[in-house]
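Researcher: We are triaging several targets before committing to wet-lab work. For this one, the compound of interest is pyridoxal-5'-phosphate. I'm pasting the protein sequence and the ligand SMILES. What I need is the predicted three-dimensional arrangement of the protein with the ligand bound, expressed as structure tokens, so it can go straight into our comparison scripts without reformatting.
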Amino acid sequence: MTQSIEQAIATKPTFSALKCRECGETYDLGAKHVCEDVCFGPLEVAYDYDEIRRRVTRSSIQAGPLSIWRYKDFLPVSTDNPIDVGTGMTPLVRANRLARQLGLKELYIKNDAVNMPTLSFKDRVVSVALTRARELGFTTVSCASTGNLANSTAAIAAHAGLDCCVFIPADLEAGKVLGTLIYNPTVMAVQGNYDQVNRLCSEVANTQGWGFVNINLRPYYSEGSKTLGYEVAEQLGWRLPDHIVAPLASGSLFTKIYKGFQEFVKVGLVDDKPVRFSGAQAEGCSPIAQAFKEGRDFVTPVKPNTIAKSIAIGNPADGIYALDIARKTNGNIESVTDAEVIEGMKLLAETEGIFTETAGGTTIAVLKKLVEAGKIDPDESTVVYITGNGLKTQEAVQGYIGEPFTIEPKLDSFERALERSRTLDRLEWQQVLV
Ligand SMILES: *Cc1c(COP(=O)(O)O)cnc(C)c1O
Ligand SMILES: [Zn+2]
């Protein structure tokens, strides 16, 4: 008897309403994302932090599963059986060789290029969104995707036995398309850019009654990104870093890392301290970086044109909130050219053995640019978020990396090739010295 009462208390949700970020109006916990009664601002999940503080300790988290669900009390799902496909708890790698190259003392890579199951941070947001979708009774799930979200939604829907229809721009990388089709969802390749895909999906959400992870389920979905804040704090030994650098598409991830850190402070899991937030965009789609540089508090939409397709959102929903966080934390938002994106991918691969996609190349290139501009102090502990895997965007580096030596299966053929490779190395060095 007593036990079942305790269980009932333990499983009581820690979240109670949706709340408008702009005007504070509250809504019930359905599939809604805008403040339709008052101001059309975005809705966010509201929690009972006193309850979370009573319930959660460092050791209760450490005793939890090796996935994002160790932070379940901070996530908007009520079930005790969330969809757990091993998402989260990706490595936080001390990046000493990259740090030395850049002149930094304490640099870490949060490596979501190896997140499960589809090798990008999107598995976090989708695990949460589909768990909530199931609770709300949806049988078909969907998304408007720049690539990685379609991979995640299709894979995790397959695991959960949900029907799935995803929408992507028609010009995505082959790896992103194949990496969706293999799970056999319905795939709509829309002849248009992401912002057009997104507009279409808003209409479909109203007509089909599907759960769109990043539209009508967006308040739940976006909370999944907070786990990138929690994990870094836990992996650093329950402390916050001095500076983080993360990529910006809609700006959601960036704002939720911030929220994650703040929540850990609020419930007493880490000490409060200032953390600087810097954001990365590709020049060919940099509406938030442009607003930052021009001192604007509004974002002017742009038409994307960059190889960094996974972060090519021309009209970013959370752009103004990302701007606000970068400014109030004394961070920066910077952009880099596509050539720098490729150099960033190669730099991370050659120094740390991590093959990231174009979004990660963007983030590394921005890290380098900020260090060179004196905007990251060499003494700051800095965490760089690598959000996707390079095998999915192979087109980007084709022609910019070496080629194998094709040899006969004979020792002398190998030795001649080895000599040639050494000559090439020497030539490269001479070019560097000239
Ligand atoms: C979606 C995505 C992001 C950024 O997403 P937000 O919309 O800003 O939350 C960053 N990196 C990769 C690889 C992505 O797929
Ligand atoms: Zn409102």
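Researcher: Any quick observations?
Model: The mean pLDDT is 95.
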